Amino acid sequence: MFAKPFLLQPRTVKETGNRKTVLDEPYTLFPDRDALLLKDFPVRVKVGDPLYKQNSGIVLSPVNGIASLEHSEEGSKIRIVQDGNFVGSKPWVFRTLQKDEVLETMDRLGLVSLDFPEHSLSSYFRSKTKTKLILLSPFTKTQDVDFLPELKKNSDCHSSFLEVLKAMFPEAKIKDYIFGMKPPIKTYSYPWGIPEYFANQTEKLSFSRIGDVLYIGPETLYNLYRALFADFPFIEREISLYFLGKNGGLRKSESTLRIRNGQSLKFLFEDLGSQYSSFTVNSFYEKHPVRDVQKGFYWDIRQHYSLIFLTRYDSQRKEFPCVECGECSLNCPTKANPMALVSSFGNFQAGLCMECGICTFLCPSSISLRDQIRNWKEANHGF
Q: Across 100-228, where does the E strand assignment appear?
């Protein structure tokens, strides 16, 4: 039914030199405007101490140190000057899990559904009490980091969690594409990691029915198992580094980087700033601003999962009229026909569109079809 998924395959690049990881400035967190503060600032904090609560859950201190609260017209921020020991991750220790402790651990250690990052993991689980289907997917959204090797090294931990899932959701069928079932494709290609697409391709569910499913991707499981079997809070994230050269060639670092929540990227910018003047986050399929490395940046582990360095960037690049090349509709994995939004070519099939961003990425006229799609959906609410 659907087209073959679009595959962007970067080359890998070996590491050069030793990457500095010691911070020169405080960790900085930016609570939502309606966030509930859980401390009286300034205050001394330890790793894992709850700092504030917002829609995506409780945010914890990433380090030991002194936390202070600052206000400005842009909003509030919490700055933590680190002192004492740097607490690292621990090895996983298998144990039999109890049903009641799983949700408590999710709350206590600040876990988030990284497949639906607007939800805390406990609230996501609680919203699925009547689900009839649980999908354990082998793919993250863009598969920048492969978490399967680490999960498969700890198969006993996975088995223990499966028993808890059965107890928590006795009426649900569990389809485990990590251990129990053969993955639907041998080699990952985008957009297989988007929950709606994965559920459609494996279970023939329409995109609108993803809310009926408890969907858990490998990165969410990885951080959940660190919490359940190593008592480690969600305060850091494993990310990939990409490098876009002058000739348009995309390279990917062979090794990943572990970044703490609120960590400044100054150490990276000092190391790579002479080669790359700009950067953006996550992927080319999403709409994120391109930033100057000279202006600094603080990492948000709930929202950011990869870092892309750019040799150059044309900030004055403009949209041009559609040339009706058909690349957007030809490469649309669901045949939603996005070209119809900027031409007279057929009708846009909104019900098939999952806003994966492939059409915008491929458009030679630099048309933001993603914006066109969202505007259409807002204007035709309930389509």
A: 133-136, 173-176, 213-216
